[in-house]
Amino acid sequence: GFSEKKLVGNLASMSTSERIKAIQKMPENMKKKREIRNKVLKEITKKSRHRGTRLPWCTQCLQEAVVSFRRFGNSLSEYFHLLWFWHKTLKIIGAEFGTSVLSYFIFLKWLLTFNIFSFLINFGFIAIPQFFAGEPNNLSFTGLELITGAGYFQQTVLYYGFYTNATISKPENGPPYNMQLAYIFTVGIYFVICFLILSFSTAKSFCRNFINPHTYSGNASKLLCTWDFNITNEKAVKLKQKSLSTQIKEDLAEVNQEVLNFSITERVVRGVIHLVSWVASVGTAVVACAGVYFLSVNNLELFMKGHKNDLESQAAMLVLPFVTSLLNALIPSFYSWLGHLERFQNPGQQIYVTIVRNVILKISIIGILCYYWLNVVAASDSECWETLVGQDVYRFVLVGFIFSLLGSLFGEFLRRIIGSRVCVSLGLPEFDIGRNVLDLIYAQTLTWIGILFSPLLPAIQMISFSIMFYVKKVSLMMNCQPPRKVWRTAQMTTSFMFLLFFPSLVGALCVIGVTVWRLKPSEQCGPFRGLPSMYAVVSEWVKILENYTAAKWVVWIYHNLITSELFFFILSALVLILTYLYWQIIEGRKTVTKLLRKQIIN
Amino acid sequence: MGNKQTIFTPEQLDAYQDCTFFTRKEILRLFYRYRDLAPQLVPLDYTGKPDVTLPYELIGSMPELKDNPFRQRIAEVFSEGGDGNMTLDDFLDMFSVLSEMAPRDLKAYYAFKIYDFNNDDYICKSDLEKTVNKLTRNELTPEEVSLVCEKVIYEADADNDGKLSLEDFQHMIIRAPDFL
């Protein structure tokens, strides 16, 4: 009819890729779409024949070129499927266990890409030039270095201390390569890129998933929008159905319970229980931090006293990471138990409170470690404190990885054996998404802190994440059952991304910032030896640039934008004003929506 | 695997590529899946546009669909005659919309049609009751089902006509980020 003619005309006037997308998105069946497509193509040839007298070959060629390019791009993307590594595995996990468990594995893959990127640029810009200027390694290699990170590895590109502070110009007559600038700029640019990527992803995710949170808890969306069509496993489907019916029953029962008011004594008792649990959890965190601090100071003394490379002192170096990882593994279980004791109003609250407590614990432990590294180790009179810190971080990452694997073993494998043979009422274990994601964030925070001191640390993390993916996947398939509780995946994913951005990346940036600006690099090793601070490299470089007229704009940017306080003040004020304006616009739109709704009803 | 396939003419393949979200390889793979359901019914040469329809029982036995509580409705929505028997076109259409490359509003449109059991372009109370029963495996009592349906209509019905139209449904989907 007439509307169809209009549609065909619209489609014919779009560009090729837009037209194809529009046809794909049409909610018609294939026959109709083919008809419309043929009509549109006829219309286009008619138009081009019309215009053909003016531009005979240009537009025709261009159109055909665009179409064949798109076909080529399609076939090329089929071959690039190899790069979508783990795509099939992720699909299987999603089918068997649902999207909530899948979100953990997608998060893991995302963190892995950060590490791959970091490794590539560090290796390319820092490690490879160092190979040209490296000194030979006189230490012997015993297998123990893989765990302790000391010994042979001390004189390799793995650690800060090995890098030269000279300007490398091999091969001869090649362009000079300033290792100092390369080091600081590579690390700096990597963090800037990470910051931008994370902040944009978090903002986009937040925008998509958190608008109007109060309408989400409605029954309508719970019923019609939460069915996970990805699941194809029969058992998982049955479980989902059971959980949905249980939830609906609970919701209906809650309607009656809302009328029930808690008496004053009940409320006081509940409040006291919550207070006691919070005191207990924060107290445990404080005690853990104190223990870690004393152990670490002790560790340093032991290290400084005996500089032997024998088995005993190597083992002693592993005690601190071992104890820290043990605390990180046991205390969250204690928090889960506390969460079960307190009777929360709804299970969502319990999950959030437990996650908040775990985050507090992990932040305090990392905070104490950073304090130890930056204040105690840096101020000690060791030969090369940056390498010491790098080695410590290496050990922490490695021991943390081993504990993660063991956690899978004990948490899931043993629990399944217990649940299926010994005590059948317990049932099979479920995959603990929150805890595993927080472990990932903890490991990534350590890696980010350690990049400055050990540029190839992301390679270690890459390997550990890859192995962890396979181990967790196998453990999941073998031991776990699909989750029973409804887990709001989209909101949780946003929260995890936000946690990765705010305490994790921002914290790592603060640590790096303090190191670069305030700490004095060691005198005898590393690319910044002898300078008052690592940042001094940049200020000296700018001073040199002042002599070149071609680079005056760089100098201007440096003096007026980066080092001037006025600029940052103006920038912050602008950001605050914009935020306030956006907030007011949103409030205004909410009022308009309410008014329009009333009008529709009436 | 080169360009030498003889199942479809190049124009047919181009048309499929333009109308679905699939690439050439995926279309051929889906054709083989379709054929594997009934090798004796489906010819290897589609250049003559043969009129082959597979009955619903075969479609519903596919591993992707066999445990889905809505498989019958899905087959009915995508089949030409509304009876669940699908041609190759319908088959490709169905998987195109269910794939991860389809945009959300397209999926919302088809989800609405799937939940609309009596095909009257509105999700009325009886449609909702059938949906709830399928989602919970008949575990709720009829009173509970009725109560839930009333609550859903009360929440989502914007123009107060006692049933959900496509706009109500799409409006709800926009604000529910977990919709898949």
Automatic annotation (TrEMBL), chain A:
GO terms for molecular function: mechanosensitive monoatomic ion channel activity. GO terms for cellular component: plasma membrane. It is found in: Membrane. The chain crosses the membrane at residues 110-132, 181-200, 272-295, 315-338, 350-374, 394-410, 422-442, 448-471, 492-517, 566-583. It is a multi-pass membrane protein. Signal peptide: none annotated. Residues 384-490 form the TMC domain. Keywords: Membrane, Transmembrane, Transmembrane helix. It holds the Pfam family TMC. It comes from the Eukaryota. Belongs to the TMC family. This is Transmembrane channel-like protein.
UniProtKB/TrEMBL annotation, chain B:
GO terms for biological process: calcium ion homeostasis. The keyword Magnesium applies. Keywords: Calcium, Magnesium, Metal-binding, Repeat. Residues 103-138, 144-179 form the EF-hand domain. GO terms for molecular function: calcium ion binding; magnesium ion binding. The keyword Magnesium applies. Pfam families: EF-hand_7. InterPro entries: CIBP (IPR051433), EF-hand-dom_pair (IPR011992), EF_Hand_1_Ca_BS (IPR018247), EF_hand_dom (IPR002048). This is CIB3 protein. It comes from Trogon melanurus (Black-tailed trogon). The lineage of its organism: Eukaryota, Metazoa, Chordata, Craniata, Vertebrata. The gene is Cib3.
